[in-house]
Every structure is written in C-alpha cells, then in structure tokens.
Amino acid sequence: MADLNVPPRRPRDDRGWDGYQHPHPDGYRDPHAAPYAGAHPGAAPGPQWVGPDGFAPAAGGYPPQGGFPQQGGYAQPAGGYGPPPGPGLPTLDDDGDEPPNRGRRRALATLGGAAVVAGGAAFALSPQVRGLFTGDAAAGDATGTVTTDGNAARPSGQQPSTVRTYTEQNESYMGSRAGEALKRNAPTGGRLYGSPAAAAEATKVTVKTVLAKDPIRHLATRTTFGATPKMLADIKRLGIDDWLRQQLEPEKIAPTKAELKLAELQSLKLSPTQLRDQREQLNEKGVDPARETVDATIARQIWSDRQLFEVMVDFWNDFLHVAADFDGGENYRNAFDRDVIRKHALGSYPEMLVAANKHPALLLYLNQVDSRKDAVNENLARENLELYSVGVDGGYTEKDVRQAALLQTGRGVADGKYKFFAERHYLGKVKILGFSHANNSDDPVAADKVIDSYIRYIATHPSTARYVAQNLATRFVSDTPPKSVVDRLAKAYTTNKGQIRPVLATLFSSSEFWAAVGQKVRRPMEYLVATYRALGVSPDAAPGYSGDNRRTPFAQGLRQIQDKMRELGQYPMGKPTPDGYADVYLAWTSAGTMIDGWNEAGDLIAGYRKQFTFAKPEKLVAKPPTTAGAYVDALAQRLVHQKLSAKEKKLVLAVAGVAESAKVDATFNGAIAAVARTILASPQHHLR
C-alpha cells in the first residue's frame, strides 16, 4: 500500500545556471564599485554602520542604491531597504527612535527558490568617530564607550544569547518533552582508555536499544554513512585500532571506481576563474557548478572508502556552513569545499577558519565584500563568533561583534580571488573577547595578518573548544552527550591547539562513545545514502542504458539522488542559512519524510534508477534459505547486519503473508522486494 504514496516522476529542469548572471566582469558585486551603500542625494557624509539587515526601510520604499544589487543579492522586501532619504542614518545617539523589535534577519538572498535569511538593524557610527574617516586621520580607538555603545535594544554589553541570530539548532529541539525522554536513556558518564579497542572491550552497553550491542557494528555505522559487509569484514580483519588509524589517514586510501568517475562532472576541477570564463560553454552543456559540487559530495558519501573523512566533511559543512545555493555558489562553492573544508577536515580547525575568512565564498555569502570602514557590515563578524567559533553563549557581547566587524573591514574579492583593500580597512585599537591590538598599520600585509591573528585567537578560545566538542559529541555519541565526554574532547582540543585527529582519537578511546549504541537516528540524507550502501548499488549504468548527450549516466544519476534529497529536506550544503542542519533526531521527525524515504528504498530495490546497476533483490543473499523465517534472518543480516527481534520478524513475515515455517524460493514466493523494503524501514536501518 505504501507504493500509493510514491510521488509522480516528473522531468527536472536542467537548464544550467543562466539565472546566475551578474553585471560585473568578476561575476559579482564589483569590489571596486564606488560609492557604497548610503551614497545617494542628500546622504550625510562619513561612516555608516550597516547591520545584517542592511539599511532601515525608507518611507515609501526608497530604491536600492550603491552596494545593494537588485539581482542575485539580497532581495528587497516590500517597502525597500535602500538608504533613507534626507540626512542619512541616525547616529547611535539617536537610536531611541528605532523600533525596538526590528528583526535582524529579514533580507533575503534568493536563488532558485532557496532563501538565505539575513538581516538586522542599521546603525550609524557616532559623530565623534565619523571624523576619523573624513581625511587622512590618525588611527582611532574602537574600545571606548562611544564607537560601539549600541542602542537601547542592543546595548554594547548585552550578551548575544538574548539577541541571537538563530536558535541553537540542536539545543532548541532537545529542550522539549521528547528531548527529556531521550536524555533519560543516554549514557551518563565514562572514562578514557588507552586505545579505542581497549575502550570497546571494557565498555558495557546499558542503554535500551533494538540494535545489536556489537562494537564492530557500532563503529561501522557511527563513523561512516552506512556499514557494508566488506567494511565489517575489514574491521574484523584489521582490528578496531588499525582500521581507525587507516581511516584517519585518508590520503593513503586508494580512490574507488566512483571517485575516479567524478571526472565526468565537468566543472569539478575548474578554478573560480575558469568557471567564470567558461560560463557560456558550461551553460550550453547544462552544467551547474554548484549542483555538481553537491553531486560529487553525494557520490563520495555513497562510494568512497574514506568514510570517516567524508563524515567529518559533512560535519564541518554544517559547522562552518556556506550554502551551495547562494549568489556566488556557482563560481566559488566548489573551491571552498576543496580548499577549506576538505583540506582541513582532519587537520587544524583554526587554519580552516582562517582559510574560510579569506575565501571568496564566505566573503560573498555573508556580505564581507560590502563592508568597509565607512559602511561596516557585521554579518561575517557576528557569525564568526556566534556560529563558527565560541558560540552564542561563549562570552562575547554586542560590543565585541562591532569591534570585530571594524577589524575585519578591508577583506574582499577582486577578479575572482581574495584581496585585502587597505583603503577600506578601519585603523584603530580593538579589543574583542580578550584579543587586543593597536591595529594601526597601514601596510596591507601587516593589517591582514592582524585579522588572521584574531581569527586564530577565537578558534583556539576555551569556549570554541567546548563548542566544537559539544557538536562532535552530538554527532558521534548521542543527541544528549554526557558532560564527561564533552569536557574530555574540549581538553583535547585545547591541548592540541585545535588539531582534529587527536580530538577524534580521544573520542574513540572514550567509553561514552562505545556505550551509546542506538542513540543516534539517521537524518533523511543519511538514510538515503545508507540505503544505497546497504543495497550495494554500483556506480556503473545498467546494461542498455544510454542516457542523453548532455551528461553521462553517472552524472544524471547523481543529480536524481540530489533531487530526491531536496524533496526529503536535506542534502549536502543545502541549508540556506549559515547555521547548518540540526544533528538531533527531534529536528527530523516527520511521517511524510519517512514514507518518502521508504518509497525511495522501494525504487532502489526495484532498480528504477537505470543510471546505476542494482543487484536483484533475490540475489542479495548468496544462498537464500528455503524457509521464510530463516530467509528473513539472512536478509536482515545482509541489510542491517543483525537479526530482527521475534516481534519485528513476525511483522516482516506478515507483509509477505507467509508463516515462519513456510517454504519459499529465492524470490520469497514473489514477495522479496516487499520483504527487503520492510527491513529497510525498520529501526535497525534508521538508527546509526
């Protein structure tokens, strides 16, 4: 009956990315364009504070000006968000007249139906500071009580947790009644052992779970996108310690056939400059570079043998999130994936954050290219603190955000590459969360290095250590990880100055990891990828499938998987906003999503995606037993790597309409597809 819920198969729109066209040669806001926002008839001279909302709405809807592009950038809400006519923005001294509840995330950056939510109130620097920039003035001092005093709604000393940009994606769900129930079944404490194998052997699993309390199965499902018979055999052969050691050195693992086939994705190895220069040719071939970046990630999740590395790439794509579908993603998101996330996924997080803050993708995504000393945009400065380092409760204040925004002025993009514009950079003393610097050098290299020093400072801050540790523990241990393991991971992060491998080694040597069997539920994307892996789908096209003249069958198949993930609500780099996807079960509880996933599993069992090769369901078990009960046991072992409970087994047999002792052939008397699909809908496949 579930087949009735299968959505109709519709042709997709594969027109390429003509809709991303921009008015400037480098494809985006011209970094040399002048004047910036605020330059309009009647505007007051001097610096203006541009919050994440841009400028306040003008009465009557003043049209966008200067640095506010009408195409591809932030869409203008009703009434407009251009600079107000007349004397310009109010100074901080006049902010008492501003609406106290103006939302910070209002403006929308839209692309293909996906909206990047951003926003904020507009602020002007005080008159006292304005004079610092009206000529060749000496360096200022942003640490005083004038520059960043804020307003009545946002005083400079206010804790950001009271005006947070986003609700913390995991905690917000776990505070519910269902979250409290999950906490009661989570392991409560533990200890560190000399090695992962020692921890696995010594740890007793006491939580209630339907999963087998098998450490090898637990390791395989928790550190990969889905266990396979080959992987389980490899762990048994190598041992837990050596297998993990191998996974932590992905550069030594040979690429799989599917990874070699990624050469069929035409944009994948092109630089941003090449993507820009070859735009027309790629459009004619129906190539969308941003979507091909997602396609390649999906392929690696399904078929790569570097599974722990891919899990960590996915982790960082949520933690240091830059959406694929943003105005700029078509040229820069693939380079960000290659040069920032993948380069540092098992290396140094401080170096990853430094690289991210000098990458065009992040600078465009969070509007840093629009920030200069006389029109300061706080988007990136805020998210560096709130999302990418110490966390919203990490101890910084609104004043810290504003000083960081001043410090980070000057960073931009020119000719498709990162460039520091010294003439746009604020000079003057800053103090941010314990980091202080005179910031008075007009040498661009020296000024740029000051910003790098600040980024490294916040990336190694104790609050960042705990924030990273909390997120890693949530990813690998449970939705409610014990404080003991979070503390241990934070200490390892601090001791090793943000190096990730030692933190993971500590995690896998902790008893809390091994005690948390069954404490994580697969998100929609993870369920789909795990299903492909469980069924042993091959990246080669089915015999006789020819495809079309635009893309290879492999490329077409990956795009169809991506489209399905979009329907399910999760795909790599898919969250429009910078907070990334939530990593807790309660964020994804949806009957419709589950049914849609089960329907896709049914399609895969039936081999509907001819771009790939599928094993016939009657071939999943090499030598199928001749009685129904034994066949279910063998098929469950093949697909979910354990037997089902007696009650679950009875339900599966009811789907086929046979008794446990009934004689069946290899096709389960014609019901093998339904039986396999039911097993893939079981808790054993949903849990990881």
Q: How does this model look, in words?
A:
With 688 residues, this protein is mainly alpha-helical. 41% of the residues lie in helices and 5% in strands. The chain contains 29 helices and 10 strands. The strands form 4 sheets. It has a 3-stranded antiparallel β-sheet with strand order 2-3-4, with no helix packed on it. The chain has a 3-stranded mixed β-sheet with strand order 5-9-10. Helix 6 crosses helix 7. The two termini are 27 Å apart.
* Terminal residue distance: 27 Å
Number of helices: 29
Strand content: under 5%
Structural class: mainly alpha
Q: How would you sum up the major sheet?
A: 3 strands, antiparallel
Specify the overall morphology.
Answer: globular
Region (Disordered): 1-105
Biased composition (Basic and acidic residues): 10-32
Organism: Micromonospora chalcea
Biased composition (Low complexity): 33-78
